[in-house]
Amino acid sequence: MLCDKITDGLPQYVLHSPKMKFLLPSWLKPVTMRASWPPLKRTMTADCTSLLKNHLPRSDAPLENIRIFAKNSVEYLEKLGEKLHEKRYIYGLFGGLDGLNLAFSMESFVFGLLPNHGPLNASDLMHNWMFSPAGIAITVVGTIGLSFFSALGNFFEEKDQRAAARFFAVYWPYVRDVLKATKNTWRGARNALQLVKMLDKSSIPLENFNAMSLGFGLVMGAFSASMRVAIRYMDAERKRLSKQNEKLLKEIKALKYNDYTLEKLSEIRAGIQTHSLEKRALRMSLAAVNGTVDTMYLQMGMLTLVSLAPGVMIGMTACVAVFSIALILGRIHEEYEEQRKMRASETRVLLALAGKEVALHFRELQSMMLDSATSEEELEAKRKAMLQAAQDFQTHQKTLESLTAPTLLGATMMGVRNGLSANSALSGIMFFVAAILMLSSTAFPPALLITWVSLCMASLIAFSVHGMISHLLQKPETPAEPCDMGTQNINDFLETLKAQEQTIQNLDPEAIEHALNDSQDYDDLPQSPLQDWFEVLRCLFSGAGKGEKFSDNILVRVQVSDDAGHWHDTPLMFAISAVFALISAPIFALRALANRIGKNVADRAKTSIIEEIEDYSDSPDRLATSPALGEDDDEQDDDTPEQTEENPENLSQTPPPAQALIHPQPLISHPVSTEIPVPKRSSSQSPVFSFFSPASPLPVRPSTATGITRTSDRVVDSDSDHCTSCADNTPETFDDALILPPAMPQGTPTTVYAASPGF
Length: 759
Description:
By secondary structure, the protein is mainly alpha-helical.
């Protein structure tokens, strides 16, 4: 179907702009455009028309146009990353290139450890060795094997059921960590010693520098490699424990009403996975050491690129010291956030168990009250057990709120981490520029290093201040009104329960359990997406630099030597290196897009679908009352007969409220049971557990003596057909009519004690 009129809703200055074609997003489907500009006349399919209207700016304000275009671009990139993550082909391509680069860099690392032999440097020695038969065989076998291992390890997932695929997915990250940690730590140790030598030339003699850097670098490299293996193993174990806690939480929530016992809850409690204090302290220490090692490689290596004046060198060193401290603190905070999430998963399970225990004790207490053979001692013991479970519920609720509540320190550290991510992107750009300058035999300008350090410092300060201000300007939500009923003296509370025995008998235990479930919803702290986008930008330039590097190793036979025996690149190698850089840069960037952004989008979509399925599976009657697919609520309202006093037959067809749909079976059967929806507690409200508080709208079972219930807006006697709303002595409040004891006249108001909304 062809569309001729597609200009509705677009600004006139956009339609008549000769630059209109440059505003079109590059991801639009191929469009056949007519040559006349303006007016804008095109021939395109209907779906292309929709894409054009969605992506082109629609406002006459330039800033609004930029905002809309940026928003649409981000949405498209998120969808692209999600598709790349689902297909996983980009992971295989990245793995092949990454293994190729790692193989060549390890060869350079090995030859860098060897002592100098006359005028030849490590690069010349490696070049001569690669021309030998043994060098050719080892290089080909090692490069192909490592690239193949890397490609399969990145393509497959750990959850794959095939043994071979799972082997590659599980063990490749450990192999890569060992190789990368050894190489980078040795270089970092060499950079640290070189920086000390630059600041104080007399501290390390020149003849001892190579020996010291070799010994120190190898020791640090071995320690770093073992540390990375331990970190990855502990992180994998923590992820496994968190998943087990999530399974336990789903199992607890799946327990149906009146379908579990204390023994079942105790069995579930025994399966809660926790991290001991010793493991948490060890992991925090490893995070600090890991950050220290990374600073030597990432931060201190910048100052070794160029020689600076003493005054400038001291200033740059001070800035790099600030970056190093920020990086160490960022790694510690990152580990703290992971431990916080682990503790939150444990607390959620404990909170759900406490809620089930409260509901179970209440059901048993209500049944015991209805049984005349129950002694007062048994009732008092059950009341104490219920109160203890209620206090445990409140304790876990407060703990979970403290673990999920934003803090000023956390917001500031999140800003610091965003600034460090921006610095890593700037570092990738600078290293790429340095590689280009090295290929063109141009000295690295000191002004470029000073500019880089200034930009990194500005970004670190800006993001840190932004995190603080965003937290301070955030308006806190009004917490629930506090109540001391849950923390008062146990004897006073027991006396309250004794005095309100009739109230307890009329409360609906199923609705109380539902209110307990509602009070357990706590959203985790939001994560900033800036770090993911900065990582994509960093990988873009990092891939370009790595493409240029491993092209030199592939084209080693194209190099030419001079009279001194040194090997140099040819103009043909420069052109081929540029092609390799253009190929590897988008592959590295798209892999980061899929792994850091597309994976998160896919996980959120999967989680929302699972939650929606679970909600509908828990309440199948909701499907009968919900509108059909594609049917509007307005159309459904038009087809519903008007419920007025002139149509009394329609009053019995009133759709049940939401709580009745969720819990259709009351504990004690009755001809009619009316339920008032319990307002759901937001996660930002303070965890107040007042088990019984006045004037709280919870479902209350009607008195069995009076048989009075409420349908729609009228009070009807369930034992007769006539309306009693016209009686002079009818109570004015619905709650008063529901819990009238048998001996009281109908005009006597009675206070209802039920669970509070903060429940």
